[in-house]
Amino acid sequence: GIYSVSLTVTGPGGEDTAIETDLITVTSPSLPPIVSFVGEPTAGLVPLTVSFTSTILNSIDSVLWSFGDGGSSSDLDPTHTYETVGTYTVSLTGHNQYGTDIATLGSYISVLTPEAVMADFSAAPLLGVAPLTVSFTNGSIGTLDSVRWNFSDGGTSTQLSPFHTFEGPGVYDVTMMVHGPVNSDTSSQEDFIDVYDERPIITSIEDIPNDQGGQVLLRWDPSGWDGPVGTTVTQYALWEDYSGEWISVNTAMANQSDSYAFLASTFGDSTSDGVHWSSFKVIAHTADPGVFYESPVDSGYSVDNVPPQTPGTVLANLGGTGVELEWGEVDENNFMYYNLYRNGEIIAQLVDYVYTDLYTGGQVPHYYRVTAVDDVGNESDPTPETMVNTTDLSWFINIRGIMMGGESDLFNFIGAADEATAGFDESFDIFEPPASPGSFLSVYFPHPDWELELGDLFAQDIRQNIDLSDTMHVWDVDLTANVSDSAVFLFDMVDVPNVPIMIEHLQSGERAYISDSTWFGFNMMQDSVYSFRISIGDTTSPTLALDDNTNGPQILLSDSTHIFSWILDDGNGLDSVYTYFSRDSGETFEMISGWDGHVDTLAWVVPDTTVSYGYVFYVEARDYAGNWVYDMSDHVFAIAGDSLSTFVGSGWNLWGTPMVPYNGQMDENVGDDIDGYWYTYGFTDNGYTFDSTLALGHGYWLGIMENADIDVLGTPLDHPHTAPLTIGWNMVSNPLVLDIVVDSLVYTKDSESKVYADAVTDGWVNTIYGHDSLGYSMSDVLKPWEGYWMSVLDTGITVTYPIHQSVSDGEDRQGRDESSWMISFEATIEGAVDRTAIIGVAADATDGFDAMYDIAKAPNPPGGDFVAMATHHPDWESVLGDR
């Protein structure tokens, strides 16, 4: 619809009203119709007129009925007459602008011939108090030949409309079957007749749980005259039999409840000696004292099911004659005596709260508990256990198992004693008893290796007391039960050494550390054996030392297999070993492999890469107790592949390759990477050569017009490289993919070797120059891909390029004594600098050539502009020239 809205406001100045006409428009929901229908009657003799009623949700524009006999209607609630015998399906179709819905009821209308019968009946009254007489009226239609009634109380009738009396209370079904000339039909009514007892009926007498007896809860159903049929009953009285005399013990007003309950006292409780029955009856009273209804007598019993309080904590002391025990007294009226338990067995029943246990023999620790028992046999919860060590055991662990269903095995001991051995000791080791009848849980220590006549299962297994700092005592423990249930296992430890204690589930390999009062639970399957291992001891870590092949510095070749090895040892055996590698000098690590047991080598497939630095190898080892040790490479590894590249700037470059080329032709290695002009010079016999070959460790002048990236295919070196030197100037390059500290170079002559500084001092070599875009400089480090001038003062000398191990044993050329001084010169032109010219004095220098101090000038570079500053000494006649 369309709605107008008005708003009236009132204030100190008066009131005002605003009206908005046709402000709100509410439209029907955009939903299709939902249709259903009923018809009455749905069965009858021909002709049969049926009235149909439709129910429609949401809006409706039109309906269409189909009556199953060819007839139809567009009325909402039509009437239709069936003229022909048969069974008909009826449908109703509803339609609006949003859709259509159809409701169909199959075989809904049954039209019978005039000779047919259809059963129907009624009755009155439908409820009452027994005995109840009911009049039944036959409402069947058609030609009836015979009728049979069944009243479900054992009674039947063939009368057309009988009377029937229901003698007892109950709810009764009634069925009538009629027979005609052409058919039979049955009509049934379930829970049709409701007959009540005029007496109240006691339904239950129950003991009150968790009380100390003396009362029961009694329930009864009301008299039929208390609500269902009438309200003449006004109250109920509860009577109890006391030695043959009925005594009224309680009353309650009638209030037409479905049931009633009394809390009734009893004159005695049932005990373990026998049942004490209490008899009751309920009487329903009316306003007329002469009219009342009495229930049948029923009986029940009460029980004291509240145990007494738990005694106070047990105090125990190992005295001269035995274990002296005392506990807190129980002060309750119905207390009778105490049960004193030792290791789960009753050793005394007494009314006093002190006791001396004279049994101190054997090698089993004593666990004591006390309970209180009342006069009906209820037993209290036990006191917390108190343990007294009456044994010669140095230390022990009690392994206790309890299942949720109550099965338990609480006293199973492992431990150590000075006099015990690793084998069977009669004084300490105790056999597991045979399994008890019924359901059981068993914890035991198996020893089939002992081959003893009484079996191979033990409840106590004691070993020799030894130092466990670098060794272990190990016990196997089996758990089994003949029922499936959840179980909890607890470890009670006494004087156990301060060493690791570990339990391992042998089937799964799972391990965990345990300590005093540790517990764990799991589900046990019937007749399955669960095997564990308990290991105690070992606080010493394994020892680990890496072999040289596991320490750096080293160069590894891509896709090769490198053997890492190390030395491991542990007094109790290794449990696991793990290896890792780092790509970032030890900042982060990735696992390579992990093994169980003792492993001391690894064949590692080196990753495929071009060139990579900063690899570190890491080894970690653990023993069974969890002690661990680790070590890693003291220097990094480098990994190099067979395809390496470098950037070369335009101009003249002093360079070389750090690998053995697959193809030694310069054009194959350089020409394929440079589109424009390029040229190379080598240096032999103190002169430049047009060099067309590319060799490891050689230096070259490479001139190019544009920047380029040069790649070389070949084999990098994974070991130090030794090369011969000629007297004079040698153009060399770093043969390794790693930097080489100049002070690490080793020179050899006539089987005598010297590091660089000593070779300079002794006049074998003079200096090493590097070159960059500005000119020469003396080099401290040899870089991969770079060439150098190396000056040699003698014949028969070789140089060894080590894998980046620096030394500092030789003397430095500068700062030898305080009386020395020097002046450094720098000569500069556009695009070139000379930074190598130095003059000075030293106390031990001479006027001639001093290998320790005087440095030959490098040959002039080829090509474009350069500047060179030097002193001239043709009088020295040096093989390195006169500059």
UniProtKB/TrEMBL annotation:
Annotated TM spans: none
InterPro entries in the record: Ig-like_fold (IPR013783), PKD/Chitinase_dom (IPR022409), PKD_dom (IPR000601), PKD_dom_sf (IPR035986)
Coiled coil (residue ranges): none
Stored PROSITE patterns: PKD
Domain PKD: start-end pairs: 33-116, 117-189
Protein name: PKD domain-containing protein
Organism: marine metagenome
